Amino acid sequence: MRRYLITLAAGLSLLLAAAGAQLALADTVPLNVLVMSDTAYSDKDVSAMTADFNAANPGINAKVDFVPYAGLRDRILLSQGSEGAYDVVLIDVIWLAEFVKRGLVVDVTDRVDSGLRAQIFEGAWKTADFNGKLFGFPWLVDSKFLYYNKKMLSDAGFSAPPATWDEFNAQAKALKDKGIVKYPVVWNWGQNEEIVCDFAFLLAAEGGQFFAADGTPAFQQEAGKKVLEYMHDQIASGLGNPSSREYAAEDGRRAFLSGEAAFSFNWQYVYALSKNPDESKVVGQVGIAPVPAGPGGPAGTSVNGSMALSLTTTSKHPDEAWKYITFMTSKPLQDKFAKAVLPVWVASYSDPAVVAGQEELAKAAEPNFKNMVLRPVIADYVPMSNALQEGIQAVLYDKADPKSVLDDIANTVGKQ
Amino acid sequence: MRRAIILTSAILLATIVLAPVVWLAILSVSSTTDIYTVPLHWLPAEFDLSRYGRLLSPDQSGHTSPFLLALRNSLIVGVGGTALALMAAGLAAWHISRSHKGEGFVHAMVATYMLPQTVMALPIYVMLSATGLLNNPVGLALVYLGFLVPFTTWLLKTGFDGVPRELDDAGRVDGLGRFGVLIRIAIPLARASIATAALFALLMAWDEFFYALLFTSNAAAKTVTVAIVDFTSGRISDYGLVAAAGVVAAVPPVAIGFLLQKNLISGLMAGGVKG
Amino acid sequence: MTAGVLLLRRDAGRAAFYLGPTILILAVAVGGPLVFTLGISFTSASFLGTLKDLSFVGLGNYVEIAGSPQFQRAFFVTLKFVAFTVAVEMLLGLGAGLLLAEQFPGRTLLRVLLVIPWAIPTVVSAITWRLIYAPDFGVLNALLQQLGLIDEYRSWLGDPLLALYAIGIADIWKNFPIVALIVLAALQTVPQELYDAAYVDGAGVFHRFKAVTFPHILGPLMVALVLRTIDTVKVFDIIWVMTRGGPFSSTKSMSMLVYERTFSNLEAGSGSAISFIITLICIAFIVVYVRLLRRQGS
Fold first, then answer.
1. pLDDT recorded at residue B234
2. Which chains are adjacent to chain A, needing at least 3 Cβ pairs under 8 Å?
């Protein structure tokens, strides 16, 4: 009996010791931060930024958890059940409405100096501003850019990237006809959020919109159908790489940086990668331009992919957490780490020191960040996006026609 | 002729079993250029062991490597869960072994072990949340008892069945109650079964992914299965690092498997598969 | 108080002491949640930390699911996966088990090596195979190309027609050893005299197998079949790591649909209903399993 009880005690104390170690009495305030592991800022940089913060704030010990984008939203939702699991989380612009509605993020309007508004791109504010109140601070401003292979274009006789969608289609066709590249365009049209991003900016370029002013679905109308047909034709005509239907951002950029395509639409981070000989076989050949202009919008009518750092409602240290957010989004820090990604601060773009080596990116960024469009700002965005992803893929795989797919989704989503 | 077929089949089988694992190990020590070369060089020019170092060393901000933390968490959950499971299972198995109506109960328990985790996940999440045990290795270990206990009870019952009843009587003569017989006679004699049950439990706990995915969030509580999957999604710049993580995560359970392999067959014989 | 009642009391007390902890654990970690989920499946509950917006909808969720193309898709994905992997696992396991029963140099070593796929964590196995199938550098592509069977590297997990079977192969690799070991264990119970008698009667290899071997291993084989089936109906981990349900939902099993509905779309009622359907399927097979065991035990 004694030995039994001793073993029981030993087992339990092992567990309790472990549990205790977690809640260790620290004289520093622990902060748990959740960030995407594939942001434009590398994991190393984010860790370094955090180290800078901890050094400047001796009473606080901030730790960063990196999670791939595919798991970020789930992790934020699942961690809601435990207090203090995360104090600061990185949110995508598309989740703002949902998180506000579910009470996951704290209203920080009063913490933000209203004078800052004009200093940051309005598009970036959209990832924190919900109905006039702020629920975070913009950390990353991003949109999809048009990447093009300068050498292939010049071989085909084009000295500049396409400025309109008509030019884009003409150039792509010429590249294929002249045999310069088998599949001129590589898209990221796998079953993930990217395909909806592309649908969004193509829809905007066509002059369409997701919802009318009164909230009725509008994406299933003429413009939406045209966009889906265009996407289908891209694959069917061989202008777009058929493997695009399996690609996420990384696959697409790998194909493009291996020299397999002349055009690719992708996020900021690809620009720096294109100059890295370990990642790119086309170093020096990659150009970056704003998304072409169309009947519905000027050049730069891209999709808004910005992200903000938000304070969670389950945080036990909101003041320290806000300090962290302020630090991470501050202009000096962002300028310092602007190697692969541009700051959210407008002034930085005219600062030669910051922009050094990325002038082309900065130049393309201005129209993009000014004109980028939002995907639907609704609380139930994720189910709608899932439905769109499946539906668009069905069209691309010739399993359904654009009209019925869009009508179905419009009926399911209903009035917002 | 028959001999030739047997030998060839044996070599084929060995290849099938080993090839993926060997490939993983090779990947973990190949440089990125070697990995991407087409046609593939089957063996890398140089063996690059740096990834193992990177996996286990502190990150840029000076904190312990998240992967190391994950290994620690898996260990806590595995050892803690196994210890608690054995204690509950030991009691139950002894009782069932010595009273004559246990068979049905054991089968019922093993049946619960076969239920899908998806059907129990949400209520368990709610319970853990309400008791503050989410994102905590202790909470996870307690949840794991749900499938560790039935399985170990079954194994331990078989082990106790192998302890002759005459020894019970001898013990009773010496003044031991049923509990005393368990502690002083049965457990020492059934050592091997207990060890087997413990190793099985450890293996099952180490392997578990779904509950860990749902119930742990940050690095302080994530187990190695969740940590490794986080590694492998999204933007991967170094597949060799992913492979190295896989190798490290596989070593403990495979070692346990080797320890268990003799008992696997005898366990299968005596337990749910009668031949 | 008669001695009988005292005895009863002591027996009850004793049972409570020995079985109590286990019953408590099972009630809290298994029984309770099962009932709770069943209850939720009749409501329109939403998930977030705690459950909100509970309103009773009766069988509404089940009706919606039965008619939903996503569920039907997931059901067939699961069905195809189970049929493919269990069938091949059983055959491969049977072959391996028979092989290991033979005498040849290195037999013991081979038997030990068989433990590796079984012991390796499912997610590590899934990652390994994902690397094998990698479109840019995977060993499968390299092998096929160098053997001249394909011209260019291609994507396997990205092809809606192949992905499920590619994952299936990985699952087979992970699980056939246990079938092999069950077969081996069963083979070791076949009395040698029966073989000798058959040999003396002039029976050839195949006939010996049919008359002597197979009847003896049929029982354990059936049990292995049912066990593997139950396990595979629940499949989640391996698919999650290899494709997360894509491409084009061609690998989204029922369990993955539950995850999506409950934890991603936060529709707890609907997700719970699907998980309960999976449970009913498992229970059906569990009943078969228990019957098989009872028959063997007698």
1. 63
2. B, C
The answer for A 262-291 residues in CB contact with B (under 8 A) is: 278-279
The distance from CA C35 to its chain's CA centroid, rounded to whole angstroms, is: 23
Residues of A in contact with B136 (CB under 8 A): 19, 22, 82
Helix or strand run (H / E) with residue A60: strand A60-67
Shortest distance, CA A396 to any CA of chain C (angstroms): 10
Tens digit of each residue's pLDDT (9 = 90 or more) over B207-220: 999 999 999 988 88
Q: Which CATH superfamily is domain B61-269 in?
A: MetI-like (1.10.3720.10)
Question: Which one of B123, B268, B273 has the shortest CB-CB distance to C33?
Answer: B123
Tell me which chain C residues have a C-beta less than 8 angstroms from the C-beta of A382.
264-265
**Contact C48/A102, CB-based, under 8 Å?**
yes
Contact C278, C77 (CB under 8 A): no
pLDDT mean over B191-203: 90
Q: If residue A65 lies in a helix (H) or strand (E), which one and from where to where?
A: strand A60-67
E strand intervals along A280-346:
286-289, 307-311
Question: Any residues with CB less than 8 A from the CB of A299 and at least 6 apart, and which?
Answer: A163, A164, A290, A291, A292, A293, A367, A371
pLDDT digits (tens, 9 = 90+) for C104-146: 888 889 999 999 999 999 999 999 999 999 887 888 988 888 8
Closest CA to B220 of B82, B53, B64, B84: B64
The pLDDT tens digits of the residues spanning A364-389 come to 999 999 999 999 999 989 989 999 99
A117 neighbors A64 (Cβ within 8 angstroms): no
| Topology of the domain covering C69-297 | MetI-like fold (1.10.3720)
Tokens for B188, please give them: 């020492």
Segments making up each domain of chain B, as ranges = 1-48, 61-269
Name the pLDDT band for A85 (thresholds 50, 70, 90). confident
- C247/A246 CB distance under 8 A: yes
Closest Cα partner for A50 from B59, C203, B257? B59
- Taking the CA of residue A413 and the nearest CA in chain B, the distance in Å comes to 26
How confident is the model over B110-132, as a mean pLDDT?
A: 89
What pLDDT is stored for residue C240 in this prediction? 93
Find the CB nearest B13 among C99, C224, C293: C99
Whether the CB-CB separation of A373 and A125 falls below 8 Å is answered with no
Q: Given an 8 Å threshold on Cβ–Cβ distance, is C247 in contact with A243?
A: no
**CA A291 from centre of chain:** 16
Query: Residue A287: pLDDT above 90?
Result: yes
Other residues' Cβ atoms within 10 Å of the Cβ of residue A292: 24
Residue C136 touches partner A, C-beta closer than 8 Å: yes
User: pLDDT band at C290, cuts 50/70/90?
Assistant: confident
Q: Considering chain A, what is the average pLDDT of its residues?
A: 90
First vs last Cα of chain A: how many Å apart? Answer: 66
Say if the Cβ atoms of C47 and B120 lie within 8 Å: no
Residue B245's pLDDT band, with cuts at 50, 70 and 90, is: very high
pLDDT reported for residue B275: 30
A217-232 core/surface letters (b: 16 or more CB in 10 A; e: else): bbbbeebbbbbbebbb
- Is the Cβ pair B141, A47 closer than 8 Å? no
Tokens of C237: 């981990």
Nearest chain A residue to B87 by CA distance is: A8
**Residues in chain B closer than 8 A to C99 (CB atoms):** 6, 9-10, 13
Q: Which candidate in A7, A78, A192 is best for mutational testing of the B interface (most B CBs within 10 A)?
A: A78
**What residue segments make up the domains of chain C, in order of their start?**
69-297
| pTM for the predicted model, two decimal places | 0.88
Q: What is the ipTM of this complex?
A: 0.90
Mutate to test the interface with B, among C17, C127, C253 (most CBs of B within 10 A): C127
